[in-house]
Amino acid sequence: VHQSKMDFFCKLGYGKQDICKVLENLGQEALEDDVLKELIRMGSKPQALEHQAQPSQLKLVARGSCSTAPGLKWPGEDGSDSCDSLRPIVIDGSNVAMSHGNKEVFSCWGIQLAVDWFRERGHTYIKVFVPLWRKEPPRQDSPIADQHILEELEKQSILVYTPSRKVKGKRVVCYDDRYIVKVAYERDGVIVSNDHYRDLQNENPEWKWFIEQRLLMYSFVSNRFMPPDDPLGRHGPTLSNFLSKKPVLPEKKWQPCPYGKKCTYGNKCKFYHPERQHQAQLSVADELRAKTKVPLALGKEEERCQCSP
C-alpha cells in the first residue's frame, strides 16, 4: 500500500521526501485525498510547476560578439524604415519665397515652412536651391525678409547657393532651375515649385517626362504650406503615394448599380449588387431558362407517378 501511494503521488510530480513526511504524519492507511490536502498545505508543488515558476535565465553573450537571438532585429534591419521609402525633396527656393511674399518680397520664412512640412513627414533628403546673390543686403528693387533663415538652413546643409558673380559691375547668374531639375532627376526625387520649367522640358525629353510626373505644386494659406492631395489630377495618385517610392494601392471599391434590383444585365453588369452577393450571377436569359426547366421537370415526374400503377 505504501509503495502504491508513493508511485501515485510521484506520478503527480511531488517529491518522495514530502510524500514520506505526510504518510508518517497521517499513517499508511490515510486516504489519497487527505494526503493530497496535506501536501498542498505544506506548500509542496509538483516539479513541473516549480520549473515554470522559476524565471528564465538570460543567456549572456560575450562582449563584441555578433550573435543575437534569431527572432530579434535591429531597427531598420528589415527594410521597414519609413525614411527609406520616401522620395528626396528638391525645393525651388526662389519660387517658394516669392510665393509666400505675394511676389513682392523674397520671404525666407516661406522656405522654412516648406522645409518643416517635409521634415514632419519624415523626409531626410531635403535640398533648397537659392541664387548666391540673395546673400547680399536687400535693396529697394529686391526686398528680402527674414534673411537670417538662409544662414541657418545653410548650416544645416539644407540650403545650397547656386553660383553667381559680377563682371564689370554686371551680375552674371547661373540658371538655378537647371540645378533643381538635374539634382531631382538624378536622385529620383520630387520638385517643389509652381514653375512649369517649359524651357527645360524642350531642352531634354527625359526631363520633360520627369517634370510632368514629379512636379509638386503648392499654396500658402495663412502661413501654412499646403500641397494638393492629388498632385497629378483627380485620377492620379494620392499625395502620400506621390511622395513615396513604394506606393500603396487603395482597396478596390465597388460602385453600387444605379438600377438596383431592376438591372437586366445579369452577370455582365460591371456594378455591385448587394442582393446577388451569395448568388451565382446569371444572365437574364439563363435565369429564365432555369425557371422554365423546373416546372417542366416537375410535370414529367407527375406523369411518371400516374403511369406507374
UniProtKB/TrEMBL annotation:
<keyword id="KW-0255">Endonuclease</keyword>
<dbReference type="GO" id="GO:0005634">
    <property type="term" value="C:nucleus"/>
</dbReference>
<dbReference type="GO" id="GO:0008270">
    <property type="term" value="F:zinc ion binding"/>
</dbReference>
<dbReference type="InterPro" id="IPR021869">
    <property type="entry name" value="RNase_Zc3h12_NYN"/>
</dbReference>
<keyword id="KW-0540">Nuclease</keyword>
<dbReference type="InterPro" id="IPR040546">
    <property type="entry name" value="Rege-1_UBA-like"/>
</dbReference>
<keyword id="KW-0460">Magnesium</keyword>
<keyword id="KW-0479">Metal-binding</keyword>
<dbReference type="GO" id="GO:0036464">
    <property type="term" value="C:cytoplasmic ribonucleoprotein granule"/>
</dbReference>
<dbReference type="GO" id="GO:0004521">
    <property type="term" value="F:RNA endonuclease activity"/>
</dbReference>
<dbReference type="Pfam" id="PF11977">
    <property type="entry name" value="RNase_Zc3h12a"/>
</dbReference>
<dbReference type="GO" id="GO:0016787">
    <property type="term" value="F:hydrolase activity"/>
</dbReference>
<feature type="zinc finger region" description="C3H1-type">
    <location>
        <begin position="251"/>
        <end position="276"/>
    </location>
</feature>
<dbReference type="InterPro" id="IPR051101">
    <property type="entry name" value="ZC3H12/N4BP1_RNase_Reg"/>
</dbReference>
<dbReference type="InterPro" id="IPR000571">
    <property type="entry name" value="Znf_CCCH"/>
</dbReference>
<keyword id="KW-0863">Zinc-finger</keyword>
<keyword id="KW-0378">Hydrolase</keyword>
<dbReference type="Pfam" id="PF18039">
    <property type="entry name" value="UBA_6"/>
</dbReference>
<comment type="similarity">
    <text>Belongs to the ZC3H12 family.</text>
</comment>
<dbReference type="GO" id="GO:0003729">
    <property type="term" value="F:mRNA binding"/>
</dbReference>
<feature type="domain" description="C3H1-type">
    <location>
        <begin position="251"/>
        <end position="276"/>
    </location>
</feature>
<protein>
    <submittedName>
        <fullName>ZC12D ribonuclease</fullName>
    </submittedName>
</protein>
<keyword id="KW-0862">Zinc</keyword>
